[in-house]
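**Sequence, structure tokens**
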Amino acid sequence: MDFRQLKAFLTVAETGNVTRAAQLLNIVQPAVSRQIRLLEEDLGTQLFERGRHGMALTEAGKALVEYGQRAMLELERARTVLKSSETRISGLVTVGLLPSTSDILASALVTAVAQQHPGIRVRIAMGYAGTLLRWLEAGEVDTALLYQAERSSEIQTTPLIQEPLWVVGPRDSGFKRNKPVPLSKLVGRKFILPSAPHGIRTLVEHACRAADVSLDLSAETNALSVQRSLVLGGHGLTILPPIAVAEDLAQGRLSGAPITDPDITRTIVLALPSNRSTGRHIRSVVDILEQEMQRGVRSGLWPESRWLAG
């Protein structure tokens, strides 16, 4: 197996067509077919089903796509490190952001990186903490924001922000930021919560066990936008950090209050892999990400939060 074979294979897998792959690779069609044939002979297995309508991956081919994409990503990272000069930092950096943080951070991060390091291209990957952790371990993202509860021997974390979780409801719910609500007072109300094992769901369930209470769920969802929409539609209350619905709270579309007895807080950490090197371009983006997060806390754009880093 060599680089040309792997690149030809991935291009055919993506297009499903040898002719189209040849056009993208800027080589003749027989050369692409030959690279695929040599790769199949080397591996001793068929990677595609050839048909009238194109090339369909076999089960072996589907498995190789995953490994091949990771290998190509690592090669691209190596090329970036080797080509970077002392005066200009360049390369692609993939940053994993939590849904509740993407609105405040994505645009600010991309803008700041473009201004300070125009040779760096930022890719934003959004997902929940468990998903981001898997992507980080697999090398699909270079750095990510996680909850402190996410653990792995293959990552190193730095706590950056601590923030409370609030009960949030429609504007007529009567919640106020200066009037904390005991968790026991929410018993009997309908709730929309993230599906397990989402980080916020885990924190809420732990608090409920500590207070010996049980919340009544009317719906579960793994999409923050759906969670927000259901609350606005009057289907129940939810529990979120204020940053997740900051604009709705500011505009009065939703109302919210801190939860007490017990307090529920989450800690956001910056995670980097400990099992592979981190290039200058990644470190540069990480520094800017931290700066933008700290700016959000100090300016009040990240409501009710506390900066933990030095």
